Amino acid sequence: MNRRTALIAATAAVPGTALAQSPHAGHGAPARANEPASTREFRAANNAMHRAMEIRYSGNADRDFIAGMIPHHEGAVEMARIVLRHGSDPEVKRLAEEIIRTQQAEIAQMRAILARLPAR
Known about the structure:
This protein is an all-alpha fold. 66% of the residues lie in helices and 0% in strands.
């Protein structure tokens, strides 16, 4: 029994508890040999983002939020770059360009906030 299955079973045995399905369930799935390059790149970007979002929690909600959101935004920027390389829809590409601009500005803002927040 894997860890997730064990957790589901243990949670189901306790009345009044529920385990929500992770919105990111399935990340880390292995690549398939016949996948398009864009799929391989999206998969790698998604996996890297999720690894980076596994932060060490400090107990400071503000710091933890910012520390987790930086890699989340960096992942969005990388995914937008992938669609610029591989996509063909002009509207999607314009959206990707806007995401890159806004997310990079927010990343800079969050890094500045993180630098001034106390560690605890």
